Amino acid sequence: MTFIRRMLSCAVLATTVGAGLALPVSASAQAASPVCVDATNSRANNTDVRLWACLDHVNQKFVIDAGQIKVKDTIGTAREVCLDTTNSRANNTKVRLWTCLDHVNQKFVIDAGQIKVKDTIGTAREVCLDATNSRANNTKVRLWTCLDHTNQKFVIDAGQIKVKDTLS
């Protein structure tokens, strides 16, 4: 009898503790903070473009102008800065900052939430900006073959380029 009481009290305790941790079926876990494309604090050529928690900060403000994605705080200065793909279109190539030029490395098209490298559109292998599988601060933005994947879905909102799967 003592054994049965002890087992029942353990079961009640486990149920009580577990009940405090469980979510109702209709509830969902809270979404993580939104993540944005970030130009870092540097505007130097060859600076890696990264992901960072969305903030109301100049490092995350961009303007799309004639296919170029320009860092907003450089517009109208002697040296405007753009997102640049380098001369490579290989998977895992970093996206960087570079002085804005009228060059294919800086021409993009936004298509169904994907940011595609313009000179690859209509080819056998279109290339997109890709957030990788991480949403951690300082994760580098890269190029990858365009896929219907959350790593390549972005929302442009108030000058910010947000990773869509981080929005609630």
Fold-level CATH name:
Trefoil (Acidic Fibroblast Growth Factor, subunit A)
Based on CA atoms alone, the radius of gyration comes out at 23 Å
For this structure, the quaternary state is single chain
Question: Major sheet: order of its strands?
Answer: 1-2
The overall strand count is 12
Overall spatial form: globular
CATH level 1 name: Mainly Beta
Report the major sheet.
2 strands, antiparallel
Keywords: Signal
Organism: Herbidospora galbida
Domain Ricin B lectin: 19-157
Protein name: Ricin B lectin domain-containing protein
Observed structural traits:
168 residues, alpha+beta, Trefoil (Acidic Fibroblast Growth Factor, subunit A), two-stranded antiparallel sheet, 12% helix, globular, disordered N terminus
Overview of the molecule:
It is a single chain. The chain is 12% helix and 29% strand. Mean pLDDT is 86; it is low at 1-31. The strands form 6 sheets. It has a two-stranded antiparallel sheet. A two-stranded antiparallel ribbon has the order 3-4. A two-stranded antiparallel sheet has the order 5-6. With 168 residues, the protein is of the alpha+beta class. It is built from 1 helix and 12 strands; from the N terminus they run αββββββββββββ. The protein has a single domain, classed as Trefoil (Acidic Fibroblast Growth Factor, subunit A). Residues 19-157 form the Ricin B lectin domain. This is Ricin B lectin domain-containing protein. Residues 1-31 form the signal peptide.
